[in-house]
Design a protein that fits this description.
seven-stranded parallel beta sheet; four-stranded antiparallel beta sheet; 28% helix; alpha/beta; 14 helices; globular; 23 strands
Length: 508
């Protein structure tokens, strides 16, 4: 099983090798051609200039041989590679193929770096069903894009109210001219968002003639959860704006009595996500997020992992953690169904990483995936759920839920919120201001990004290379507890909140 081992004894290192089995090291600063670099006691003379986050060979690699990082192959050499040579897309290619047959070997106990052990708590909003929100916000959810701007105007005019942390509308272009499973996915996402514990009140805003009809959408929401929900059909109102304002005032009145109270960390629902990754993401930010997932699940809470195309090449590491045969079968079918999705559209399963990822030092999808899956920590996988579905609390306490969803940042962060995440940890090596309906905590993989974009970044994970992984994890957990208790994440301070809906079908 893959473990992340970061040697933090020498903060001034120029490069790092993650494991003794690896063929490459990663530069921690820009390195010059001809420079002698020490890696684990070995002096390597560089044949090429190596950018920060990029790799160089520690031993000769023959053409056709696997190239290893994270103790696992990240691709194959397309030509002979000499010691000290830059290792990247010009001399390494993916080895990924299409669907695979997987065999369940029984649940395997996870091993690796342990999560912070102290019992923690945060101040959240306890809902009648026992779930806990990190915010008490009023969400305006349009059924169709035609009334999206109306929702935004209502949110802008709502003003402040006691007990209400904010009023936010989530515009989108869908809900009409969709068919079948595509329309069903849109409806499922909106209904599940309406059930997120961070929404202390919800206004479902419809037009009237759209495919995504309000009555059908309402049927997806349990009757006992409708006391804080109101609906508005714009075509049925003489003055839809005045009607919306009245419903918002009514909901605000109900929310006015809500108060934060101390609750254990087990009540946190943690979404994990990466975007704009670089080669440092798998060395600093993603392992730290994995430790946060472990901290929450070890406390009895829940964590959710998605971005299925970004586990290609590392899926066996997740499959080893399946709690039982049923979960294993669901996860293996989910991975293969995503591969079929690519192939059916004439695209290779390895059509990733992005240009930004490559510029940051990631060479193949295998390398990106091996770094990305570390966000899920080491907890057993208790459940696998479909796009638009909500996490089942009967399965997920103390474990990881895997959620069907693509890697697209807006789509996957929205799916995490719809699944029930009340805070999302988002690692990035390149930077992005994007936020989702819930606090979206940006964790930089490198000092440069954290220093250049302090308005975007909530935490600098490169501290792990300076002060050690354990100390950095403790500091990050403090930050998460503070944000869960009401301190605004950067995306909230910047009013960066949006949703993205996965469009998979035809448009009429």
């Amino acid at each position: 099983m893959l473990e992340t081992v970061v040697d933090t004894a020498a903060p001034t290192r120029d490069a790092v090798r993650i494991a003794a089995e690896d063929d490459v090291a990663v530069a921690l600063r820009p390195l010059e051609s001809g420079e002698d670099v020490m890696v684990d006691g070995q002096s390597v003379r560089l044949r090429d200039a190596i950018g920060a986050g990029h790799k160089f060979a520690l031993a000769p690699i023959a053409k056709g041989a696997p190239v290893r990082r994270y103790r696992a192959p990240i691709g194959v050499a397309t030509r002979d590679i000499a010691v000290g040579e830059h290792v990247h897309t010009h001399n390494v290619a993916t080895a990924l193929v299409g669907e695979r047959a997987y065999a369940f070997a029984g649940p395997q106990a996870g091993t690796g770096t342990q999560a912070p052990a102290p019992a923690r708590s945060f101040r959240g909003y306890v809902r009648p069903d026992g779930t806990v929100g990190t915010r008490n916000e009023l969400w305006i959810l349009p059924t169709v894009g035609c009334v999206g701007r109306l929702g935004e105007r209502l949110a802008q005019r709502a003003g402040d109210a006691p007990g209400v942390d904010g009023v936010h509308a989530f515009n989108h272009p869908f809900g009409c001219s969709q068919l079948g499973a595509d329309l069903d996915g849109t409806a499922a996402i909106i209904a599940s968002l309406a059930l997120n514990p961070n929404a202390g009140g919800v206004l479902l805003l419809g037009l009237g003639c759209e495919s995504n009809q309000l009555d059908a959408l309402l049927e997806r929401i349990p009757p006992e959860r409708r006391t804080r929900l109101r609906i508005l059909r714009a075509q049925s109102e003489g003055d839809e704006f005045a009607a919306g304002e009245a419903l918002i005032a009514e909901l605000m009145g109900l929310m006015a009595t809500d108060r934060r109270e101390e609750v254990p960390l087990s009540k946190l629902r943690l979404g994990v996500k990466c975007g704009g990754s670089d080669a440092m993401s798998g060395l600093t930010a993603n392992p730290l997020i994995g430790l946060m997932a472990d901290a929450v699940t070890q406390a009895g809470g829940a964590a959710i992992l998605t971005e299925i195309p970004e586990v290609f090449g590392a899926e066996t590491l997740l499959l080893e953690r399946a709690a039982n045969q049923e979960v294993f079968d669901k996860l293996s079918e989910l991975v293969n169904s995503f591969k079929r999705y690519f192939l059916d559209h004439g695209e290779p399963v390895s059509e990733n990483p992005s240009p930004g990822n490559i510029a940051g030092g990631i060479t193949t999808l295998e390398e990106k995936s091996l770094g990305a899956v570390q966000k899920g920590g080491l907890a057993p996988i208790h459940d696998v759920i479909g796009y638009g579905e909500r996490m089942s609390l009967s399965h997920s306490p103390g474990g990881l839920t895997v959620l069907e969803g693509p890697g697209n940042d807006a789509v996957s962060t929205t799916a995490l919120a719809a699944a029930g995440a009340t805070i999302t940890l988002f690692s990035t090596g390149r930077g992005t201001p994007l936020g989702s309906p819930v606090p979206t905590v940006k964790i930089a993989s490198n000092h440069s990004l954290a220093q250049r974009k302090p308005g975007w970044i909530d935490f600098d994970a490169a501290l792990a290379l300076d002060i050690g992984m354990e100390a950095a994890a403790a500091a990050l957990l403090d930050r998460i507890v503070a944000i869960a208790s009401g301190e605004p994440a950067r995306n909230e301070s910047n009013d960066e909140r949006a949703i993205g809906i996965w469009k998979r079908g035809v448009t009429l």
